[in-house]
Task: inverse folding
């Protein structure tokens, strides 16, 4: 015998369980992915020290243009503040998915893509956009845009190879150099001469670039990921990678089963 209104009550209960359950975060971790590439330790360390790794991990669809340690010297020589460094690296994170195959089938041979620098709201005007173009011989180039057009003074950064592809979630592509952008490197109004002098992040600390507060922030932002990088990519990926969201989904499953049982009892 069913109680009056039991079905309605059970339905409402089920809807509450589903609607109040927290949204599952993106199932990837950029530092765990790059841990398998020891030649990209400096680039990975910069992502962590500037907090950009967290921004990348919060996105469900993203493409990271990564650079090897051998190509990091020009960035070290720029002596950028932490904020400017964050902007430069943000320019290398496309807010869309591009893997090797997609690079070679661009409509009309080119595409203009927004980056995390543009999405942050810190980029002036249309700065923070990147043009991808396939050139003669199948070479793919990336060039930053300034004021609605590509920067004719900026050299093209060429695609080297694919590092990691998880369609259509995250793609990590190796490029041969870091892009240069006056808009990204420009000091903000909050920067002071003492801050510029103290934040030669790339050259002072190697894989832990950043001023003292940037280095202090790194553990709190990504926990034990630095240790994961030292131990190799395998353990890091298991702890922080695609299976990171499993406990949340298991709890959700138990809650769902409980709701079903309540419905059966009441109905």
Result:
């Amino acid at each position: 015998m069913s109680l009056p209104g039991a079905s309605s009550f059970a339905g409402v209960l089920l809807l509450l369980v589903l609607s109040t359950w927290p949204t599952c975060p993106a199932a990837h971790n950029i530092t765990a992915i790059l841990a398998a590439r020891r030649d990209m330790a400096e680039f990975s360390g910069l992502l962590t020290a500037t907090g950009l790794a967290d921004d990348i991990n919060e996105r469900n669809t993203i493409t990271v243009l990564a650079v090897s340690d051998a190509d990091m010297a020009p960035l070290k020589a720029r002596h950028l503040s932490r904020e400017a460094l964050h902007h430069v690296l943000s320019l290398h994170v496309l807010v869309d998915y591009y893997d090797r195959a997609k690079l070679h089938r661009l409509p009309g041979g080119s595409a203009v893509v927004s980056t995390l620098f543009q999405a942050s709201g810190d980029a002036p005007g249309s700065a923070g956009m990147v043009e991808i173009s396939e050139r003669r011989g199948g070479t793919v180039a990336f060039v930053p845009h300034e004021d609605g057009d590509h920067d004719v003074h900026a050299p093209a950064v060429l695609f080297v190879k694919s590092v990691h592809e998880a369609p259509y979630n995250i793609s990590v592509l190796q490029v041969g150099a870091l892009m240069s952008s006056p808009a990204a490197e420009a000091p903000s109004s909050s920067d002071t001469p003492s801050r510029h002098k103290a934040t030669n992040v790339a050259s002072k600390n190697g894989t832990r670039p950043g001023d003292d507060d940037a280095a202090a922030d790194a553990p709190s932002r990504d926990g034990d990921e630095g240790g994961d990088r030292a131990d190799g990519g395998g353990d890091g990926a298991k702890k922080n990678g695609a299976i990171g969201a499993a406990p949340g989904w298991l709890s959700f499953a138990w809650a769902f089963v409980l709701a079903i049982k309540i419905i059966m009892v009441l109905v």
Q: What stands out?
A: The chain is about 45% helix and 15% strand. The CA atoms of residues 25 and 232 lie 24 Å apart. Residues 246-266 form the longest helix (21 residues).
